[in-house]
Amino acid sequence: MPPHTYHAPLPIVTPQTMGRIDAAAIGSGIEGYRLMLIAGSAISACVLEYYSEAVGAIVLCGPGNNGGDGYVAARYLAEAGMPVLLYSSIEPERLKGDAGRARADWSGPVYPLEELDCMPGYVVVDALFGAGLDRPIEGLIEETIAAITASALPVVAADLPSGISGRTGQVQGTALQAEHTVTFAALKPGHLLLPGAGCSGETHLVDIGIPRRVIDEHNEAMWRNDPALWGADLPVTGAAGHKYTRGHLCVFSGSFSHTGAARLAAHSALRSGAGLVTVLSPSSAVAANASHLTAVMLRKVEDQSDLDELLVDQRLGGFVLGPGFGIGEKLRQFALSIVKAGRSCVLDADGISAFSDGPEMLFALCRENPLNTVLTPHDGEFARLFPDLHADAELSKVDRARKAAERANAVILYKGADTVIAGPDGRVVINNNAPPWLATAGSGDCLAGIVGALLVQQMPPFEAAAAAAFLHGEAGKRAGEGLIADDLPDAIPPLTHYQSDNRGRG
């Protein structure tokens, strides 16, 4: 498959930044009402495309420009011949600016929200709050959401379902469940972070005429994970390449009864392009590992002196430590030695939990050395390593990952259905291609192996972690529903599928 030139990666911006982008676009000479007309037409087009057989549309309009989008959508739906019932959460006369103009251009009746009638066969257009809401839903709006939820009518949300914080993705007390969400100019964190991602249904990103340069000028170094971000950094094997130029990764095994995790990581690393992979096994588990390994090599590593001897060999480019290893001082000393030696290190599972009672020594070593460490915690492991960040309810998952990466001087691959990858420099990607059936025992071990393989092939740590999360999700899709972790390594797609030809880009 030939190299591919990818489209620009999709930026993600917070609602506050989106407000500044809107203002900058209007300040550059773009008419605000024109943007509203395009947004409203996109909402109406979504309704007509997916719900053409609906009896009619119930349009809910709130304060501000989100309500204005709703008025525009209502007008276009009526002009298309769809019966429309429009309900407002405020007195319509209170709408000002572009939203007031949209209200004036609507010729139909406006009913108070208190009179809402969830008539069977209708589709609901939710233009109450959008992405900017960051306070609890209560009172009449709470009752309205409950009524719509009970009615089971389909919902098309303008920008974001009402009740979801666009900044954090959290439910503000209660929220609508949309089947489709139409958002504008750029994605918001709430579209990709849970539970907001689940409430948004299918998200449609619409270009409403804001120039990309204006969005880029307000770049928050946050993107949806995509090969466009790292395709140019994927390793390429030349004609003169050999196994050592493709990197040598070592994966530590646990004891006799805990060897499977290391083998999953090792197998995944080979499938991800590493030239050589060696499982480092305690003597008690050598026989168990030897009976299962073929292309993966095996070496006995019992104690610190064995590891010190290994670290003399500069061809050993990276290590995966933690899966099935067991928590204790041995693991901590192994990890510290690897980081101090300047080798690439993926700390996963027990490799993270082992430092829960005192991570500062690890972080100090990471700060003293070039960036070469990737930590891959799930939510529980993150809480053990960064308890203060995890407990701060004001922080989004993105905020927590960013602060953790800066503190540790390591790349944080914060796992979940909404995996967040953050670097110490503030860059963040949110990965959303993982199918739900990827949540199975051993899946994370495979992910750790993919990260390690890309690191030993000289991929930068942030890009390696982002690429690994994406490849892991694609492997889950290829393996299919009902997969077990054993299926994942052989389902990892070849790196050549995602290599781009825009190398040397700025």
Automatic annotation (TrEMBL):
Cofactor: Mg(2+); K(+)
Source organism, top-level taxon: Bacteria
GO biological process, one term: metabolite repair
Domain YjeF N-terminal, first and last residues per copy: 18-216
Leader peptide range in chain numbering: none
EC number: 4.2.1.136, 5.1.99.6
Domain YjeF C-terminal: 226-499
Keyword NADP belongs to the record: yes
Molecular functions (GO terms): ADP-dependent NAD(P)H-hydrate dehydratase activity; ATP binding; metal ion binding; NAD(P)HX epimerase activity
Binding site for AMP: 415-419, 444
Keywords carried by this UniProt record: ATP-binding, Isomerase, Lyase, Metal-binding, Multifunctional enzyme, NAD, NADP, Nucleotide-binding, Potassium
Subunit structure: Homotetramer.
Protein purpose: Catalyzes the dehydration of the S-form of NAD(P)HX at the expense of ADP, which is converted to AMP. Together with NAD(P)HX epimerase, which catalyzes the epimerization of the S- and R-forms, the enzyme allows the repair of both epimers of NAD(P)HX, a damaged form of NAD(P)H that is a result of enzymatic or heat-dependent hydration.
Family: In the N-terminal section; belongs to the NnrE/AIBP family. Belongs to the NnrE/AIBP family.
Designated name of the protein: Bifunctional NAD(P)H-hydrate repair enzyme
